[in-house]
Design brief:
InterPro entries: HTH-type_LysR_regulators (IPR050950), LysR_HTH_N (IPR000847), LysR_subst-bd (IPR005119), WH-like_DNA-bd_sf (IPR036388), WH_DNA-bd_sf (IPR036390). It holds the Pfam family LysR_substrate. Keywords: DNA-binding, Transcription, Transcription regulation. It is built from 12 helices and 12 strands. The chain has 3 domains: 72 residues, Winged helix-like DNA-binding domain superfamily/Winged helix DNA-binding domain (Arc Repressor Mutant, subunit A), CATH 1.10.10; 103 residues, Periplasmic binding protein-like II (D-Maltodextrin-Binding Protein, domain 2, 3-Layer(aba) Sandwich), CATH 3.40.190.10; 94 residues, 3-Layer(aba) Sandwich (D-Maltodextrin-Binding Protein, domain 2), CATH 3.40.190.290. The strands form 3 sheets. The protein has a 5-stranded mixed sheet, with helices on both faces. A 5-stranded mixed sheet has the order 9-8-10-7-11, sandwiched between helices. A two-stranded antiparallel ribbon has the order 1-2. It has 309 residues and is an alpha/beta fold.
Length: 309
């Protein structure tokens, strides 16, 4: 089918149907989410598939699963709907005398001071600019960008950031520290071996797919050490910082994410050599999209502050 005919028939209600069906993978639940009858939802799905001339969902005994082509269209639908929401919020902010709307996704384990200082400065320059901050891990930030829910991601470089859909600009890197809470028995020790920590103590670590965890595991492998057997995995930096206060576990986290806790004396860095080689963190944008005045200003602030690190 030629694109002019498709554009004349495709509606936002069709995009909502694709997103709802992708989320529930069940036609009955999708119809409930859209406040329509199941027969009407069935007809709408058939109409969408007729437009594109192919099956977008595989019919299973229990539920439905997107086909490869369906996944591509779902990504477009998520991005289009999120883009419309962001546009509406931006127009609303400007109508109220503001300076628009900016949605940022960032990992908190990489130079949080860099991001927060830039946000504080752009708010000083544009007091009525509305800003939303989302994300926590690299995986979450990339997913938010893919769904069109954020304008910019600050994340670590990995295979996903090198996708043909994105452009990545490195900003810097950070040092990882091994820490415990201030009252931990290990604080009194002058000499510590990493092998002892790995074998004798519990650890709080980020998920195995995170860049920090991959770097940590590689550092242990380079030293011919096994991975810790007693591990609490956590993808929230805030939760990790709480857990370290409640347990005698050892934790690995970036120096900037720990800076305030170190200043307040809540955690102590242990004198162990751990060379964790992390991928650089930087700016992640959707390829081919325009940059608003506010987003361009924020990117310039990030670059300026990164140059001073």
């Amino acid at each position: 089918m030629r694109s002019p005919s498709l554009f004349n028939r495709l509606r936002y209600k069709h995009l909502h149907m694709l997103v709802a069906l992708s989320s529930s993978q069940n036609l009955h639940r999708a119809s409930q989410a859209l406040n329509m009858s199941q027969p009407a939802a069935t007809r709408m799905l058939r109409e969408i598939e007729d437009m594109f001339g192919c099956d977008l969902f595989e019919r299973l005994p229990r539920g439905m699963r997107p086909t490869a082509l369906g996944q591509e269209l779902i990504r477009f639908a998520e991005s289009a709907l999120s883009g419309l929401d962001r546009c509406a919020e931006d127009l609303s902010a400007r109508q109220q005398g503001g300076y628009g709307y900016l949605s940022i996704g960032t990992i908190m384990g990489a130079a949080p001071d860099l991001v927060m200082d830039s946000i504080a400065q752009i708010k000083t320059l544009n007091p009525q600019l509305r800003i939303r901050i989302m994300g926590d891990t690299s995986d979450q930030v990339i997913q938010l960008l893919e769904q069109g829910r954020i304008d910019l991601g600050i994340t670590r470089r990995n295979a996903a950031t090198d996708s043909e859909h994105y452009t990545f600009e490195p900003l810097g890197n950070e040092r990882m520290l091994v820490v415990v809470h201030a009252g931990h028995p290990l604080v009194q020790r002058e000499h510590l071996e990493l092998a002892e920590l790995v074998s004798d103590w519990p650890w709080i670590l980020q998920p195995q797919t995170s860049p920090a965890r991959i770097g940590f595991d590689q550092a242990l492998q380079d030293l011919a050490l096994p991975s810790p057997a007693d591990v609490i995995e956590c993808n929230s930096i805030y939760s990790m910082q709480q857990l370290i206060q409640l347990t005698d576990a050892v934790m690995v986290l970036s120096e900037s994410a720990l800076r305030d806790y170190l200043k307040m004396g809540l955690v102590v860095a242990l004198p162990v050599a751990l060379d964790v080689r992390l991928a650089p963190f930087g700016l992640l944008l959707r390829k081919g999209e325009g940059v608003s005045r506010e987003l361009g200003l924020f990117i310039d602030l990030l670059r300026q502050k990164a140059a001073m690190l």
